[in-house]
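[PROTEIN RECORD]
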Amino acid sequence: MVIFGAREDCVFDREVGEVKLRAARGGTGELPLNRLYCTTESDFARYKRIAAKAGAPSLLFNMPADVLAAHVGQLPALLGGSGEYPLSAHLILNQLRPLAARAQREKRPLRLAVMNGFGQGLGDVITGLTALRLLRDLLEEHAIARPKIDVLVHRMYLKTVNPVYRKSTDIENALSQPLPVDQLVKYDGVWDLAGCLRKPTFSRLPLIDFFLDALGCDASAFPKESKNNAPLPVPASVLRKARGLLEKAPGPKMMFHAKSSNYLRDMPDSVCRKFLDYIVTHTGYSVISLTPMFFDHPRFFDFSRYSQTFDDYCGFIASVNALVTVDTSTYHIAAGYDIPSVVLFSTVPPTLRTPYYPSVTGMLLPDAEQSPFFMKHMPKFPTPGAEERAALEALWGRLDFSAVLEAIVGADSSAMTRL
């Protein structure tokens, strides 16, 4: 966590969305706390880079410790584990007990915040909220009063992830960061979950265990069956709409989801068309897509225009008989609804994502561990170059369609197979 200020009023609107900062002095004079800001180290470094590119390298200043103490007083305690090695005890209990006791003496609720939230992806957020639910149960078990928890999310991603946070009873508010320090000091403790991809435990632990560890819990102490996601609530009207549309499709319904937020995990279009043709030829499924796709068949239905909100998205996933998907949020949602699913992984082993989802089978693409994309969580460029595109085509070209369908048919009692 970084506390910083700006020497002049400024607006950052490139790369980071629109972030407005009001000027504050950087000396020992009086500093209004609403003109100091807190953010993550990575975000502060990004703002500094943008300012330097704009010819203002000294626009932002990091508050020195002595000045910070004089103006801010007591900052929230930093919570959670380091992410270097998995915790073998519930560190969070020792961290929260004195904070909870102080809050009780002051006759107010314990207030906590998760800085950077649980990432930028919907699946990450869903999994993080499952970890938070388990933490809540742990605190109740140890007689620590239920805290009020906010998440702090970069403004650029807040609109995307907020619909998930709104479904959680464990989150009070989703707020944008940078956060003015006069609001930061209202919290007793803060988890700083920035830089998850750089933490060693991110590449060693299943995602839910990584978040439990980051929250300060011994992930191994929780029963495996408790680590599945809960079904996300969907308004009845949304479910009726989704199911009404699905009635137009004959037979059992399979959702086919070939796109993610990261092209390293996307199924190439050429492979999509071959796989879709294989599905409609060898099974009795009607195939549903929530992303636009150029494929023509009487049992293929592009419902992307009907999936405009997160509720719509969940409503369709909750209402199909089966799911075949790349590594994206779909299967995290489907797991909560117990939808038989096969997830095709190209960059990480399934053991890091699906071990606690009983209805989900994870399949790593053949030879994926030898590909240049394995354990690469983010691409270097917004779109793939010709060489990268060819390598991805070759990787996905090894996919065994029959093995995927065998896994689905074995789990889905509604399947009508021809072969």
